[in-house]
Fold:
Amino acid sequence: SGYTLNIVPLDDQNIALFVIDVSGHGVPSALLSVSLSRMLSGNDPSSVLKEPSDEPPGYRIVSPSEVACTLSKRFADDDTEQYFTIIYGVLNTVTSELRFVGAGHPGPILLRAGQAAEFIDATGVPIGLLPGEAIDDYHEISLQLGQGDRIYFYSDGVPETADDTNDLFDIDGIISVLDEERNGTLDETIASLLENLESWRNNSPVTDDISVLGLELT
Structure:
């Protein structure tokens, strides 16, 4: 499958971040990943992240739930029968508010300074599975982050990593590693998570891509 992840500056106060998993393999999957990268860029003409506005500063940052709805409607009547999952968020660097939405993608792990790591459920239908008239609003989640708080977006290949007896690493495995390694830097916690996944696999074949996107408020 095709994975895409990125951090996109929207303006001097807002940053977008996302992880996408495109169904299927080969050229169609790769082409859809490229198309989505353009639609989720800050400056491409096909971008769905900002739209013109008569109010200063002349544009409006589209909310995560609106982005998900726009993508759903755009791909609702697509004849390729491709679909994708996404977790998409916008962080306001002034207010430290993170708003995000999930569409068929595993929810993030929140690690607040001095607290246990927790899974944030972000349910929603994958993009491209519903006809246009069936699309409802995607539920948007808002988190107020504080100094030292971390949040991790990741592909489903992380919790679905299986060992040689086909037991999954699962969400609990992610939480356990991030809790245990919380005193390390953000990069160190991600590296440790990847090392633990490798150990868990124990020479069983890699069946899915593994992507982790971490963010820390400093």
Summary: The first helix runs from residue 26 to 39. The chain is about 25% helix and 25% strand. The radius of gyration is 18 Å.
